[in-house]
Design goal:
By secondary structure, this protein is an alpha/beta fold. Helices cover 30% and strands 24% of the residues.
């Protein structure tokens, strides 16, 4: 079969092959099978579970095992399974395992508290000693929240810090991290490593402002970072194309970004979000910039260290709720927030430093205590941005069934993208009848594509759905998974 074979022909070929081989496993429903055949994705590379909410699968009830179970109706309810027990890379749907565990163990109202504190005397606007900034693992301490903390310091009368700014990042284990190891994109914000003091995702927004009359390009950065140099870029002619590559950015120096190429004027205004510096450097540079704008002065250095027990809290910033963070994580598939939550859950539950190993143990212990069997689970960082993470479709379905029966069900389900309306599902199926009728988490890597969540069928019955593709052509699998959602809506 070639990529040029017409869609209908591919479907007929698949169905005719099935008919000519009586001993073959039952196939997927025709519309779904045809979509995967058209994408040149074999059914052996696709795992699917569809089951009514609130019930175990028919296979679990009758104890049978099969690679593919055909669509069936049990007491009027639709069921479908294909390769359900096979360990698969679930991409970002692994976030469901992490976020449900966190919601149950920490509670939807849980918050993170980041503090400024000092043991030194404050007199006439002068702090005669060090100022401590202790991170709590807040996954969404953005620029505005950090600025507000500094504004509150100034409101207390603090102007000059004679000592150092000491950054306490000890809540999470600090390990060597290569941000480019996963996909060779070390400056993409999604590759930022988790940190107990993650501020603004350690990122800046570079804005390119071309002036056609002067044939010049002005480059700005937000937020401004003290000591960080931003070089100019030359005007360029020709089509916009890959303007980032044409600008030839040079990130080789941690405190400087220069451009060796040109910016095509035809591109007009563009923005580019990039992660720069390491965590301590970023926090220090942002602090100096904002503190100076507010009329303050820092006479000492910026260094890592532990906040002493006798330090008095000067300013405390309380984050939004865990339920709000989970919504951002699942609707927009935020990897660094998921990794922050993974380590935060470990630190909070174990009352010890958050480490990847401790986080794995905490998540596994949670599911074991609830008798939710996940025998093949491999969880590396809890975000799905991993080549190692594994789970089967049937195990993911058990997670979804447990979440539905949980007191945190409203927060969990509403955190998933609403098909055709928001998050990573905003542009999918928005003209089909299933739009607005399903909450679906998506996942995508170079060789993996997944969906997992809930569908409200036209009959009024809710269904759990999981579909995971692991194949070189996985990126072509969206049509097949969309067909699966539409099929559930129509036939459930």
């Amino acid at each position: 079969m070639t990529g040029t074979m017409p869609f209908a022909a591919a479907a007929m070929l698949l169905l005719s092959l099935g008919a000519a081989t009586p001993a073959a496993e039952p196939s997927l429903p025709p519309s779904i099978a045809a979509a995967f055949a058209h994408a040149q994705i074999p059914e052996s590379a696709v795992a699917i579970v569809v089951q009514p909410v609130g019930t175990a699968s028919r296979r679990a009830r009758d104890g049978t095992r099969s690679a593919v179970r055909p669509a069936t109706s049990v007491a009027g309810d639709l069921e479908l399974e294909a390769n359900a027990d096979r360990p698969m890379n679930p991409a970002s749907t692994m976030k469901l395992v992490t976020t449900y565990s966190a919601l149950e163990q920490l509670g939807p109202a849980f918050t993170w508290k980041t503090v400024f504190a000092s043991a030194a005397p404050l007199d006439a606007g002068v702090l005669d000693g060090d100022l401590y900034l202790r991170g709590a693992g807040d996954p969404k301490l953005v620029f505005e929240g950090f600025w507000l903390m500094l504004r509150q310091l100034r409101a207390r009368g603090l102007r000059t810090i004679r000592g150092d700014l000491v950054v306490d990042r000890g809540l999470f284990e600090q390990v060597p991290f290569d941000p480019g190891a996963f996909d060779g994109e070390p400056f993409r914000p999604y590759n930022v490593n988790p940190d107990a003091l993650l501020v603004n995702f350690k990122s800046v927004t570079i804005r390119f402002l071309p002036d056609e009359q002067r044939r010049e390009v002005r480059v700005t950065m937000e937020p401004a970072l003290a000591g960080f140099e931003l070089g100019p870029v030359a005007w360029g002619d020709g089509p916009c194309g890959d303007w980032r590559a044409r600008a030839a950015p040079d990130f080789s120096r941690g405190d400087r970004l220069v451009f060796g190429g040109v910016y095509p004027g035809e591109c007009r205004e563009q923005t580019w979000n990039v992660a720069v510096m390491d965590h301590r450097q970023y926090v220090g540079a942002l602090f100096r910039s904002l503190w100076g704008e507010l009329g303050g002065a820092l006479q000492g250095a910026v260094r890592d260290g532990a906040m002493p027990a006798d330090a008095r809290v000067l300013v405390e910033h309380e984050s939004g709720s865990l339920a709000e963070a989970v919504r951002d994580i699942n609707k927009y598939s935020n990897n660094v927030m998921a990794r922050e939550l993974f380590l935060s859950t470990a630190a909070e539950v174990s009352r010890q430093q958050g480490t990847a190993e401790r986080a794995r143990q905490v998540v596994e212990a949670f599911y074991a205590a609830k008798a939710i069997a996940l025998p093949e689970l491999v969880i590396e960082n809890g975000s799905g941005l991993s080549r190692r993470e594994r789970i089967s479709a049937s195990s993911m379905a058990r997670v979804l069934q447990a979440a539905w029966a949980s007191p945190v069900m409203p927060e969990f389900v509403s955190s998933l993208p609403l098909v055709g309306f928001d998050g990573t599902m905003r542009r999918r199926l928005n003209t089909r009848s299933v739009a607005g009728q399903a909450h679906i988490k998506t996942g995508s890597l170079a060789d993996a594509r997944a969906i997992a969540g809930y569908v409200l069928a036209a009959s009024g019955r809710y269904y759990v759905v999981v579909s995971i593709i692991n194949h070189a052509n996985a990126t072509r699998g969206q049509a097949g998974q969309d067909a699966l959602l539409q099929w559930i809506y129509e036939h459930g």
